[in-house]
Amino acid sequence: MLRIIVDSGSSIKQEEKEKYGVDILPLKILLGDKEYYDGIDLPMDFFYDKLINEGMFPKTSLPGLGFVEKQVRRYVKQGDDVIILPISSGISGTYNSLRMLFEDERKVRVIDTKVAVGGIRLLVEEVNKYRSESLDAIELKLKHLIPRIRIVAIPETLEYLHRGGRLSRTAYVAGSLAQVKPLIGFDATGHVKSVGKAIGLRRAMQMLASRLEEEGCDTNYSIVPSYTYSDKNLKALIAMTDKKYHAAMIDFDNLDPAIACHWGPNAFGYIFVGR
Q: Who's near 242: CB < 8 A, 6+ residues apart?
């Protein structure tokens, strides 16, 4: 049997585990002086109250590695193959920690996804298409797909990405000018970067909507519309996006706290597969 393990940076919710056929490792979130498990004991409303109304800045840390090791060793002992898809090594240390933990285990593959959130949903969907194939074959398919995944979003502010160490000061300063709305994405190495900017929110939305065409969005794969806190701007973005892409859009993804704490409230965007 093939087991798929993701961390909560995938934004796959605990109630979606059966739908996607995955185990979810919750990242840890330090909020004030208390530590929470992402998607387990940190309700969205409580999280955003602390973030917005109390001005708290959360910190994230790796899932419990002892728990991961015990779970994976149990699967291997019963004859299962395991694929682990953590968020990009460019924004988290989870991949490197798990790679070292299982580097000598032939029935376990830890893949550097170079993406996060909906990008990992797309990879899980790909694995599920080929569950009966070998680990080598599945890994090869993932490595062909990963460079095609696009994550493009418009944050309300770059403050959270910068303070969390996910965005350089140069990009932060350039994207924080009055009226400038930056488009933020991932580069080929899985690091967060600025991929464009526009004057005013509407122009930025138009630029983001047009990227589906410019990048040659492949509608054989899902498009994952994502947001943090409010979906108002996401709905406006979809309304100005060519209707030929609408059928490929899966349910709106309200990003889990482990990712939302770096994007801040009211961010929104698309995750899709390009050429």
A: 209, 212, 213
Q: Which residues contact 80 (CB under 8 A, 6 or more apart)?
A: 1, 2, 3, 107
> What b/e string do you get for 249-272 counting C-beta neighbours within 10 Å, with b at 16 or more?
beeebbbbbbbbbbbbbbbbbbbb
pLDDT band at 61 (very low <50, low <70, confident <90, very high): confident
Nearest 10 degrees: Cα torsion 131, 134, 140, 146: 30
Q: How far apart are CA 75 and CA 22, in angstroms?
A: 13
74-120 pLDDT, tens digit per residue, is 999 999 999 999 999 999 999 999 999 999 999 999 999 999 999 99
Contact 83, 138 (CB under 8 A): yes
**pLDDT recorded at residue 157:** 82
Q: How confident is the model at residue 194 (pLDDT cuts 50, 70, 90)?
A: confident
Domains and CATH numbers, the chain: 2-147 (3.40.50.10170), 148-273 (3.30.1180.10)
Copy the structure tokens of residue 149.
């995944």
Percent of the chain exceeding pLDDT 70 equals 96
- Cα–Cα distance, 101 to 105 (Å, whole number): 9
pTM of this structure: 0.93
Q: What is d(CA 126, CA 130) in angstroms, rounded to the nearest whole number?
A: 7
**Residue 231 CB partners (closer than 8 Å, separation 6+):** 252, 254, 268
In 92-141, beta strands by DSSP E? 108-110
